[in-house]
Amino acid sequence: xxRKKFLLEEKDIPxxxxxxxxxxxxxxxxxxxxxxxxxxxxxxxxxxxxxELSKQExxxxxxxxxxxxxxxxxYKNYRxxxxxxxxxxxxxxxxxxxxxFKNESVxxxxxxxxxxAIAQAYxxxxxxxxxxxxxxxxGQWGAALSYAAKAFGLELAVYMVKISYHQxxxxxxxxxxxGAQVIASxxxxxxxxxxxxxxxxNYQGSLGTAISEAVELALQTPNCKYTLxxxxxxxxxxxTVIGLEAEKQMEMAGEYPDVVIGCxxxxxxxxxxxxxxxxxxxxxxxxxxxxxxEPASCPKLTRGVFQYDFGDEAGYTPLLPxxxxxxxxxxxxxxxxxxxxxxxxxxxxxxxKDGLMEAVDIKQLDTFEAAKLFAATEGIIPxxxxxxxxxxxxxxxxxxxxxxxxRTILFNLSGHGLIDMAAYDQFIAGDLTNYELTxxxxxxxxxxxxxxx
Length: 453
Ligand SMILES: Cc1ncc(COP(=O)(O)O)c(C=O)c1O
Known about the structure:
Layout: E1 5-6, E2 16-18, H1 42-45, H2 51-57, E3 64-66, H3 69-75, E4 83-85, H4 87-93, E5 98-103, H5 114-126, E6 131-136, H6 140-151, E7 155-161, H7 162-167, H8 169-177, E8 181-185, H9 191-199, H10 207-220, E9 224-226, H11 233-253, E10 259-263, H12 268-284, E11 289-295, H13 300-303, E12 305-310, E13 319-324, H14 346-353, E14 358-362, H15 364-378, H16 386-403, E15 408-413, H17 421-428, H18 439-447
Parallel strand pairs: 5-15, 6-7, 6-9, 7-8, 10-11, 10-15, 11-14
Antiparallel strand pairs: 1-4, 2-3, 4-5, 12-13
Helix pairs in contact: 2-11, 3-5, 4-15, 5-6, 6-8, 9-10, 11-12, 15-16
Pyridoxal-5'-phosphate (PLP) is lined by residues 111, 113, 137-138, 140-141, 230, 263-270, 338-339, 383, 385-386, 414-415.
């Protein structure tokens, strides 16, 4: 058997997604209506989301949810994805640790985001929806959804965070190639966008603002639903195909991870790789560490507060229980655009609160150093987002070396960085800096949060 690359066959693509909620002792608190502050039922979500996705969002009872055949058929275009042992990286670090990565960058659009995009587009189409809207940070989610929307014959409008719209023009062209309409956010096309532009004409946008615009457009357009690429429970659910495959592949490798690592924006790729392993900890008491790697400039898990907050800037979304920096938090313009989000999904937030996982914050320059080493050793240029997981992996591997003990590390390579070369250019030219959030900035944002309950 190849000891470097662990490959599964088409028949091994999971037939059901794993819903972690039934296995959690403390379930995530329910989302609340922004108007009444009462817990929401699936029907309350129908105006915004497809019905099946609304049901999945609040499914607290079924551990396994069947993957529709049409979705599995499209998964077959790129799944199962490889699990790779990073021998060259291990050698460069001179570490006794064994490093494995699940390579989600091999999807047609280059990231894990397609796993949920296909499912969301499918359920919208099945319900007879014709138009969908969304937001995108660095453009990975927008690109994935553009492909999925095209596959199911849906019209798509994407609000792309303004800074990324300019920093990553090729992701915009990818979306346009698939036929999506792309609007830089904040824009003058929505009430939420106009308000922000009027208050701060130079605002470069955030995921929170783009979400407000996309939700507003969906609510005002007939036969239109909103879709989201992270944070929500149903997105975490769809991403579990990553960890379910990795579980089998680690078995093929004859190893079990001591630690599982994912970078963290709203939590979808992290949950995808981690939840199937966390299941062993919850149901069998297995000793395994789960680590989220977030940017030092947007540290919701390491420095945020656990509270009900809005998922968006304007306050259109349901109130979600989350670790948050405040929905008006304006993150620094780091290149890992997909990690510039103020909050963490409610499942992850509960797991974090219960001490079942850890989080580390990583500085921008450290992520690019890690990316450079990974590229030089493993031959793949990682997405700036994924480089946070690589930096955290390197820390773990060096710790193992210091202790002189072996350690098996599994991380998720959530995407490649081939459309992010402008960021690498700046790094090579020495033009990138670290952004660290000061206590003053943090307190200012958090103090604006109103206590809900
Ligand atoms: C490649 C990649 N990794 C990670 C993320 C972060 O999102 P999440 O935390 O939902 O995985 C993004 C988001 O855009 C991304 O594009």
